[in-house]
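Lay summary. Proteins are chains of building blocks that fold into shapes, and those shapes determine what they do. In this project we predict the shape from the chain. Here is one chain we studied, written as its sequence of building blocks.
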Amino acid sequence: MSEQIVKTAAKQEAIRRRLEEVAKSMEDGEGNNGSKALKKAIEKMKEIERDIVNKNITSETLKRQEEIMQKMLQAEKAEREQDKDKKRKAKAAKQFERDQSEIWKTYLEEKKKQTEILYQKPIDFTPYYQKEVEKYFQKTK
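And here is the predicted shape, written in a compact code that computers can read:
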């Protein structure tokens, strides 16, 4: 039984050291959420190691083990999101030349005629709406 406890403690320590390496590499990058979760998991692992060495395995030890798993999953999720953000790049919009076909030219001429008609035959609006119409025409020019 004691041989099995020693092996379990050694495995726990190896996992903890690997997590410390991962946490350190995440600190060097930009992964703050993941490294914080891993640090908490590492602290809990140290407590579990002490419990294993002292042969004091209780329900609280098992609860800590579950919390470690949750922290590791949070760190993994944070690392995946960080990798995802690095892959996404913004691209500038391409400038397209307007089609100067006959259809476009006739459309612009018709639009100009319609606005001229509205200016020539003013509709009786209240001053507020008259200003709104003028703003609209300024935006469409």
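What the prediction tells us: Residues 102-140 form one domain.
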